[in-house]
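Hi W., the adenosine-5'-triphosphate complex you wanted:
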Amino acid sequence: MRQPLILIVDDEEHIRKIMSIMLGKKGYACRLAASGEEALGAIKKESFDAVLTDLNMPGLDGLGLLARIKETDPELEVIVVTAFATIETAILAMKAGAYDYIAKPFNEDEMVLVLEKALERGRLLAENQRLKREMGERLDSGSFLGSSQAMKNVFALIAKVAEVKATVLITGESGTGKELAAQSIHRNGPRRDKPFVAVNCGAIPANLLESEFFGHVRGAFTGADRAKEGLLAEADGGTLFLDEVAELPLEMQVKFLRVLQEEEIRRVGDNVSRKVDLRVLAATNRNLTEEVASGRFREDLYYRLNVIRLNLPPLRERPEDIPILAVHFLAQAVQKNQLPPKTLSPAALRVLSAQTYSGNVRALKNIIEQAAIMSDGETIGPKDLPFSSDAIESPAGLVLKIPEDWLDLKVATQEVIKTLEEILLKRALSLKNGNQSQAAKVLGISRRSIITKVQTYGLGSKRKAPPFKP
Ligand SMILES: Nc1ncnc2c1ncn2[C@@H]1O[C@H](COP(=O)(O)OP(=O)(O)OP(=O)(O)O)[C@@H](O)[C@H]1O
Ligand SMILES: [Mg+2]
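Structure:
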């Protein structure tokens, strides 16, 4: 951290000197001004962390100076220094926005204490603004979130590998955030201002791959009526992200290996090569060692790509991340679809956290966006989520309302039984598509008693939620 810079304003020279010596000893840098006017001039020139000013000065006095500072730079903290006789004025000054006052004759410790507090507040304000900016940025698609230890490990690895040029192989199931991880490596590294070129290796037809990657000269093949730069040239100086790298045909794998080894590319039909400076990231949701074993992926390319391995854990291994992701996706969906503000109820968050998502984070994101659009009220509850009633009644969703002062075992047991009964009743009805006679059979009770129970729990009119398949 740089040395804090303090402006000392006093019309008496010896006071300015004493203060600057005291503060200098404590590690502050000081500038001195003999009047309010001089102080304003200094503030225009340099960026101060705090101002210590006398109140009684000829010309622009302390109060006047304070007012001018608060007009132009409300976050610059001002501390007034005043003789005992003018404490009333000091209080006035505080009402006008001064941070604090110090009475003359002052002692060193008191002055440093007040100053430190003022500086701390300035730092907090700055930190707050930084956080707000970050939160704003988080809402754009670039944000990569997670509070689980597994994701903290991922972030730590990203921070480390972002700095270097080594190739990273990003693995993980579908929808776990591989592309986001690649973007994050690029954004956090020295190439952040250079291009990030993502290529989906599975989406380019095999016969076009070479010219898409390497470019071509005019007339290189039929239809090449003008020269074209390839994706590798486009990524020069930046990052090339090879998504779904396992889909690359074997011939292209050989060509890529050469690019990685020699950092040279040659356009189709060209007879000269050119140097490129590429940072290569690759991703796959296939097991590349199996692909290598079966001969579909070149072993030498695999080792070239797998210099550093970043594995993104599936969401079911980090359910702690679900609430933070859900809240984030809701804010995103609200913004994207211009919806009124919405929140997720605690019960909805519980239900979301109790699910497993075979489509991982992407599936969660889709569910939240759908719920945001479809729900009517301000709050999204369990009923707005596309899970079957079974899922809602999973243990995480089971809430027993037993007041704390209930010690009566019989009453408590009855409450538990009632809750369980309701769950089993719903489950049986859902299994039998709402047919009460059949549900009664499964439950082993009479038709009459199921009718009574359905009424007691108010289950009669509920429609059956469709089974959930992310
Ligand atoms: N940790 C996360 N924080 C915020 N958003 C995330 C996170 N992980 C994934 N997402 C979001 O989920 C969606 C899927 O992520 P991404 O495309 O990076 O996954 P992927 O692993 O590349 O999937 P696939 O294997 O299907 O290509 C994206 O919309 C992404 O923004
Ligand atoms: Mg992807």
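The chain has four domains: 5-133, 160-312, 317-386, 399-470.

W.
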